[in-house]
Amino acid sequence: IYAAAMQVRPTMTPIASLDNQFVGLKVAVSGQVVDSYEHPDGHLFLKLRDDSGSVVSVPVFARVRAELGEPIEFLDIVQVTGEVKLYRGELEVIPEGAGDLRVVHTAPIKLSNLSQEKVDIPVKVQATIVEREIVGSGSMILTLQEDSSQLSVFVPAWIVENGLPELHVGNVVRVDGWLRKYNEELELKLGAP
User: Fold this and answer.
1) N-to-C CA span, the chain
2) Which residue among 138, 141, 143, 190 is buried most deeply as judged by most CB within 10 Å?
């Protein structure tokens, strides 16, 4: 009986149903990474959104992250089993170990599949840098190309100055952010390094 009980995982809880009554309970949630922040100490703070449109915070502390052994990227699907806690008035689901996280990596979308209908949604792309330009007060515009399709990527100055890796024409990069329209053209805006 003990072995069977250890194999039982909680059923998926819709994020929208989480409230203060869940504090202290163990739940399993699944959602897409719609925001992340990497702390200098190695912690990764995720925001997961499920089909209900609701969002929950998931702090992946450095020890757990090191055990995980794989990166968690923007738009990946993450299933988390953990205890619900209240931190600064916000509910969080906190995994105890790497076994409490399951990650399904989402593939980058092809540049040729981007269209006006995808404006204001988050996307992940992978392509070659064909142009790199510094603009304004230190911001950067990258022009990416995949086959015959191109896309501009706006990198705000604060990202350029805070952890952006060295980028050169000819590098193949994977970038993610929010697709928007700028001067009637599609552009991807980065939200983090």
Assistant:
1) 48
2) 190
Burial tier of 7 (Cβ tally within 10 Å: 0-12, 13-18, 19+): exposed
C-beta separation of 175 from 144 below 8 A:
yes
- Yes or no: say if 125 and 175 are a contact pair by the CB < 8 Å rule: yes
| Both tokens assigned to 176 | 């993610």
Length of the chain: 193
3/127 Cα distance (integer angstroms): 48
Residue by residue, pLDDT tens for the chain (193 residues) are 544 444 555 588 999 999 999 999 999 999 999 888 888 898 999 999 998 889 999 999 999 999 988 889 889 999 999 999 999 999 999 999 999 999 998 889 999 999 888 888 888 999 999 999 999 888 999 999 999 999 999 999 988 888 778 889 999 999 888 899 998 899 999 877 7
Is the separation of the CB atoms in 63 and 4 below 8 Å?
A: no
Judge contact between 182 and 154, C-beta under 8 A.
Answer: yes
State the amino acid at position 40 in one-letter form: P
Q: Which residue has the tokens 């959602």?
A: 31
